[in-house]
Every structure is written in C-alpha cells, then in structure tokens.
Write a structure and sequence with these properties.
By secondary structure, the protein is α/β, with parallel strands linked by helices. The protein has 7 helices and 17 strands.
C-alpha cells in the first residue's frame, strides 16, 4: 500500500512521515510532498492508495485537491489546523479529520480507519464526487436511489433515472455513507428513504421494491436487519 502525505510545513511533514512509518509497519510505503501541483500529479498518475491531506498548502486551498481526491478509489484523511472546516470535509466524503496539533494516538486512530483496521463512525456525508469528461462533479446523496457494485468501482443509480460511476468500491463507500444507506446484498446498497416494501418470492428469495418500482435482490443474511429498518 502507498500512503501519500501532502503537507507544506517541513517539521509537520517529517513528523507525519516518521509516525506513519512507525504506526503502519513495513507493508505500507509512505511518501510526502509539499506542493499542491506535485500532489495533483501523483494522484493523476495513480500514485497512492491512501491520502493524508493538509488544507492550507503554502497559501493554496487544499479543498481544490480534496474535491478531486474524494472521487478516487482511495480514502482521504484530512490533517489540518482548520477544525472549523471539518464538517465541510466530511460532507465531501473524507474518512477522518485529524485536527492540529495532533497526538500519536489520534493519528494512529485515523490510520487504522484508513487501513481498514477499525470501523469509523457514520459520517455526515451529503455529496459524492464523481468523475465526468469535463472533471469532477458533485452528486447529492439525497438523489441516489441505490449503489451497485461494478468491479472495483460502484454504479450510482439516481432517482431521476441517471447513472453515474464512482471509483470507490462498494466496501469503501459503505465506510462513508450515513445511516440511511444499508447493504442489502453483496452487490447492492440501498437508500432506505427510497425503499417501499419487502417481497418474498418462491424458494425463500427476497426482493426490495423501491420508489421507482424497481426491485433489488436481498441477501438472506440481510433480511432481518432490513425488515427491522422498514418497520
């Protein structure tokens, strides 16, 4: 795994490199850059599997890079002194927000989430960034009917019938989505606000009817959890 650190303060950058090396072990390769332009080049080249991002890079706003990063297949953790921007970052889809100054323990917690070793709390995500021909666009989660696994990516099916693609896998999206989204099948996540009723077919097969009349398959292990949420 390749972990990219984007931080313009030399002392903080060196501390992040040192602590990440100590906390994540030899299976993760850590690199650090100081400039926004270099970070953008690394991301365009597919140069990371996880990102630690500062929001103030030599006077440049890191949110410009963040909007691109959250559309990627990897997770992003913001490390910033601007705690007042945490909600805005979570709404875009960051996995965690570590305020400066940070402790070794707090950074370790964020890295565990980044490496999938701990389950983070449900986030206040409101939008998802998706790649289009002309760049990144934001899709409101309230417009999403459901998500379908599409290889290592995910397909967003919207209420108005449109379809978008997101680079993150269904598993990685599940770590970010708020509580109204439920994994109803290994290949599907449903927006429960758009769910109408559970149907039982022959052979104890279950389907979930959505607001547009379409139906999703429901895994047997998910039936009871889904039934409880629909009551």
């Amino acid at each position: 795994m390749r972990l990219l650190i984007v931080e313009d303060e030399p002392l903080v950058r060196q501390r992040l490199l040192r602590l990440c090396g100590e906390l994540v072990g030899p299976g993760v390769h850590c690199q650090a850059v100081a400039e926004l332009g270099e970070a953008q080049e690394r991301l365009r080249a597919g140069g990371c599997d996880g990102l630690l991002l500062d929001l103030n890079l030599a006077g440049e706003d890191g949110f410009h890079l963040l909007r691109q990063a959250v559309a990627g297949a990897f997770h992003t953790v913001v490390v910033s002194a601007h705690a007042e921007r945490a909600l805005q970052a979570f709404e875009l889809g960051v996995l965690d927000f570590v305020p400066k100054p940070f402790s070794r323990e707090r950074l370790q917690q964020a890295l565990q989430r980044l490496l999938g070793q701990a389950e983070g709390a449900r986030r206040s995500l409101r939008q998802l960034a998706v790649w289009r021909a002309r760049g990144v666009a934001l899709v409101e989660l309230s417009e999403v009917l459901c998500f379908r696994a599409d290889g290592e990516a995910s397909e967003l099916r919207l209420i108005d019938g449109r379809v978008e693609l997101h680079a993150k896998s269904l598993e990685r999206l599940a770590a970010l989505l708020p509580g109204e989204f439920l994994r109803c099948h290994r290949s599907w996540i449903v927006n429960l606000k758009q769910a109408r009723r559970l149907h039982v077919a022959s052979g104890s097969r279950y389907t979930l009817e959505l607001s547009d009349g379409s139906e999703l398959p429901v895994g047997r292990t998910q039936v009871e959890a889904l039934r409880a949420r629909l009551l």
